[in-house]
Amino acid sequence: MTIEIAVRHAVPGFTLDVDLRLGNGLNALFGPSGSGKTTLVNVIAGLRRPGAGRIVVDGTVLHDSAAGLDLPRHRRRIGYVFQEARLFPHLDVRRNLLYGRWLRGQGGGRAEIDAVVEMLGIGSLLARRPSGLSGGEKQRVAIGRALLSAPRLLLMDEPLTALDEARKAEIMPYLERLRDESRVPILYVSHSVAEVGRLAGEMVALSGGRVVAHGPTAEVMAGLDILPGGVTAEAGVMLDAEVVGTEPEWQLTLLDTAAGRLAVPSGDLPAAGRVRLRIRARDVMLALDPPVGVSALNSLPGVVEAVVATGDSAVLLRLRCNTAVVFARVTRRSAANLDLVPGRRVHAVLKSVALDRAMISL
Amino acid sequence: MTIEIAVRHAVPGFTLDVDLRLGNGLNALFGPSGSGKTTLVNVIAGLRRPGAGRIVVDGTVLHDSAAGLDLPRHRRRIGYVFQEARLFPHLDVRRNLLYGRWLRGQGGGRAEIDAVVEMLGIGSLLARRPSGLSGGEKQRVAIGRALLSAPRLLLMDEPLTALDEARKAEIMPYLERLRDESRVPILYVSHSVAEVGRLAGEMVALSGGRVVAHGPTAEVMAGLDILPGGVTAEAGVMLDAEVVGTEPEWQLTLLDTAAGRLAVPSGDLPAAGRVRLRIRARDVMLALDPPVGVSALNSLPGVVEAVVATGDSAVLLRLRCNTAVVFARVTRRSAANLDLVPGRRVHAVLKSVALDRAMISL
Amino acid sequence: DEVTVFAAASLKTALDEIAAAWKAAGGGEVRVSYAGSSALARQIEQGAPADVFVSADLDWMAHVRDKGLVRAGTEVRLLGNAIVLVAPAGSQGPVDLADPLALAAALADGRLAMANVDAVPAGRYGKAALTALGLWRSVEAKVAQADNVRAALMLVSRGEAPLGIVYATDAAADPGVRIVARFPADSHPPIVYPAAVLAGAASPDARDLRRFSARRTPARSSRRGASSGWTSRSQTERLGRGHRDRSSR
Amino acid sequence: MGRLAGFELSAEEWTAVALSLRVAAVATLFSLPPAVGVALLLARGRFPGHAILNGLVHLPLILPPVVTGYLLLIGFGRRGVIGAALAEHLGLVFSFRWTGAALAAAVMGFPLLVRAIRLAIEAVDRRLEDAAATLGAGPGIVFATVTLPLILPGILAGAILAFAKAMGEFGATITFVSNIPGETQTLASAIYTFMQVPGGDAGVLRLTLVSIAISMAALVASELLSRRIARRIETR
Amino acid sequence: MGRLAGFELSAEEWTAVALSLRVAAVATLFSLPPAVGVALLLARGRFPGHAILNGLVHLPLILPPVVTGYLLLIGFGRRGVIGAALAEHLGLVFSFRWTGAALAAAVMGFPLLVRAIRLAIEAVDRRLEDAAATLGAGPGIVFATVTLPLILPGILAGAILAFAKAMGEFGATITFVSNIPGETQTLASAIYTFMQVPGGDAGVLRLTLVSIAISMAALVASELLSRRIARRIETR
Ligand SMILES: Nc1ncnc2c1ncn2[C@@H]1O[C@H](COP(=O)(O)OP(=O)(O)OP(=O)(O)O)[C@@H](O)[C@H]1O
Ligand SMILES: Nc1ncnc2c1ncn2[C@@H]1O[C@H](COP(=O)(O)OP(=O)(O)OP(=O)(O)O)[C@@H](O)[C@H]1O
Ligand code: MOO
Ligand SMILES: [Mg+2]
Ligand SMILES: [Mg+2]
Q: pTM of whole model > 0.80?
């Protein structure tokens, strides 16, 4: 399944102009406030008619200005979690949740409903009306409503912002399963690199209505420094990894990546199979010799390939560890002290606890 | 200036019951979705009348059920950034911004207005109406409106959620200045430990309408593991620090803390004076010997005092470095490998880049 | 059998009595629809299910007759009336209509309450009488024209207007006013309430009811007798003689 | 009819009361669906005849009621263009029937009904309708499941206005269907009749009080209902 | 009155047109502030007499207009309790004056005005008012700077209803202040007069068209204005 979006939409003072082809899975839409994320999502949902363009989802043409085609919004089968909850004030939470499902004639699926309700922690709210709900409660109901409407494409506009970390940590694995098992493609708007890094296979960075970066999340993340309003703290790489074993007594899981073997906390990780691991440049410490007597369990030998970017006090280095690229952010002084120039052999030292569940996507 | 809040407020299915005495500065209100944060803030603002209780801000009694006293909301001089923006749809952005200021007869202060507009990046929106603004734009205008109303207490309900990291990074120093210079106390609701850690002197953790932890942010943070829906990734300590020098060629600033001397990126830090530094347990690596040939610039000698908490795969250790407490989170395996038991001498190794601006508050 | 009568609203008291008497005398049910003559005439024109039409003046009866909706030879002058000048009950003395200045003087800066002088029969009779007496010009600007006679009467009895022109029957029924002058019968077209059986009448009783009514005018039947102000049938016939049916406006 | 004083109603007056209730209820109920349709068109539609439709709807308010009644008589009377057609094809006769009184009341109350519903429609947050559409609701379903429930208080407000108007209306009614006891004599026309005769004041007072009592009961009921609905859809 | 056919208006008819405009405009403008006040009370107030106030406001709709006119006469006539007091202390005379026609029109239009404004008030998002209060706005200022601007379209809608009603109202007017050319003879009374006369149809048609034209112009103007306001406060 692919999503093709080539649209131009102008309002006074702002023009959205994108040409994107997105694959299956969860695609992140990233960019500063006012960059056009919501506008793009609205155009896809049919809530705004683009000035010109073409939108095709999974072979179905949703819109084609040239051909005068415009599929009515209610036939697009697009689930949309709005930036503001938009719950129906006259329906209780249960009816809000089941609204889309009921319309699509999918009354059944009790198990699925229960699972969603459970995951969102809204079981006790079912009989309530939206007016008395807290901000985060509203947001959770809105997520549930979209999930339960059996969409063929899910648009989520900053769905987790009003939620606490614990709740996010419960919802994210659900989104991962949704992405992987039900194969519903998701377009996910977020300001959080952590969320995007964990969930998104591909990532689109918008700025001023235009696409400034697009590609596999790992690659785009690596270049985040150069993004407008850069999020240096989160720059890093994503590595494919295979679970090759566990150390049950320590609750550690061993991953084989192209960069080498790494031990990470087991948590809810599977005992076998493939996962993806994000390694932030700021979490990588460089040592000239293999470290001994330190608490960090992971140490990957590698070579400095390049100085990617230089800031006031820090530099971003590209390392090659085995066949993989890993980034490391160190102070300029350390880079000078250790003579971290291209060709220099180093060890990338990583604390296992820094490779926690937030850094791993299934 | 102090804030005294002792209120009980019940709605069907939920009871808020708090008794708090908050000091000056920025106080964080933290807790899972539905824990009563917005309810508490509404009670303080006078938007909900508590069933019983007493609220005193800076000697002024805002509410006293026993005495039958209830200061009308518009006389409370409380600036409130709502969880949803609540901009006036019939006024343009400029008039929205100046609404409170105009009412308090403070037409002047062009410089302040310009500074706020600049900081929020809403200069180009001034003539627009709220209806066409993006989510983040609305939120920024709402922040500006509250800031400019010359409040004696500022309530901010998740004010930065819809903003990108870059924008947050611009607004946070402003809030710090507000807190320190204009001495307006702030009650700040947030789910983000990073924000809270950076901004808040004191922190209140709510759960189910009750205060489950309250104290200096550093102390509460240290105990975050035990909080419901714990946010282990962010646990750590806050240290008072004095700027004792800079290394201009490396753009590094040297801080003296009770734990020892640390080098951090200079950024916009002052060349002298006091700051506070947050050190997350997950960023601390432990080494038995002083590390050499590594990129981490900071290494603090210390002694393991206690194993504070033990999780599946990690342990949280309390170290004493000089006179200060520092926490370190390491895998259980490392703790066993290195025999990290109370009394063990270690070196806490910290990357300078991990001590970036987000970890330092002025 | 039931008879449906379309009658001018001002006849309600009189016709209710006649209907009761008719029924007591062994007649069938009578349904009376009271409304303005103009409305009733237009409704008859549009095929209303009425058997008998009782108009407040000759004009609307003529209108209906001209449309061929009246059964020939059934027209009678059912009731007669007179117009009088009234003042609030507590007011002073009579007004001499022969004196060209008396009426205007009695009004002072007050209003002369009348029914609409262009549209409502009572108003038209009053205007004709005032004109004939040479008084119209002196009071024209002071006339307050009401929707109907009852409203004019009320203006006087409530003291809003010092004088008013109404039917003798109205003046007699309202203790709030007193008659201060009577208009000579020849100063205005005859005040008659013509009744006729309509061409489309469905009830065979209609003819009898009309005859019955013409015999039992309230002037004779009513307990209050002549004090009700209606003129007897004989007077009515007499008054009508010598005038064209359609009075000039 | 006799009894002019005293507060018991005569049989004929009870008939008028019953008829008024029936007329007002039927007029209000039957004009609801077209009123909702027209209000929707006026609130949401952008079409050439917008101003004309809007004007037409307000016409019964602008015209003196007797003129409206006269136009109804000409149009919907036995001999009227529409009246004749309706009688022939649908067997629906208005002239001099209580149905005609209901038609007159419906027409007179229509502008009030439409305006109330239109105001309610214009107050609906269209973002909620957008949300319903993304969940698969077509325009009809969006209307039935989102718009309609949200405008219910407005519909109720309009209905109570129309009902009250129907109780008080007589100008158009008496002109269109006359004032036939038991068939078209409503409370208002009965009051009018009493007003036309000397000494009718007691009758006027009596029937007026009845009319007020009925309308008040309807008013209070609608307020309670409306408050219940409003509580459910509070957005606060 | 003379001319029954032909489409030019007589001098007297022009006077009636001018008077109708004045009466309708004054009635609408002067009833706006009390209508806003009453609508606020009804929409927001929780007080014992709520149902009674609500009933009182609807009374002119429930009562046949002539009864309303009669009550006005009793209350505001020269000899009326209120009328006498007003005349004495404020020099404000209603009886047989155009001001009385305006009062009658205002009273008849009041329920329509109040209901429209009340619906608008009930649609206001009170969270915005709360926000204004935290910014230092007392109840009066909140009303003036937030509530009022937001209910403007509703006020406009009510005003146009009241204006249209004032153009068409004659039952209460003629009963209260009678039909004095140049003083209280409005277009509606003139039309009514023509209706009473055999052959008056042409006159009815002519004046009716004038009345419609005026009201249409007002209607179109209000629509345009309302749309401009609505565009400004769109929340979409
Ligand atoms: N009127 C009401 N009736 C019943 N429950 C209510 C009512 N108002 C609020 N609550 C409940 O009170 C609890 C606290 O709500 P509050 O808005 O204070 O939460 P919060 O801490 O701000 O949450 P969030 O982070 O999601 O905004 C919620 O569970 C909410 O559902
Ligand atoms: N009707 C309009 N008129 C003018 N500008 C508009 C209009 N609608 C949207 N815009 C502008 O378009 C830009 C993109 O808005 P959009 O809502 O897509 O931003 P966003 O990327 O979703 O931002 P955020 O993260 O703050 O939600 C904004 O600057 C907004 O002000
Ligand atoms: O418009 Mo009227 O004057 O209520 O019948
Ligand atoms: Mg957005
Ligand atoms: Mg909240």
A: yes
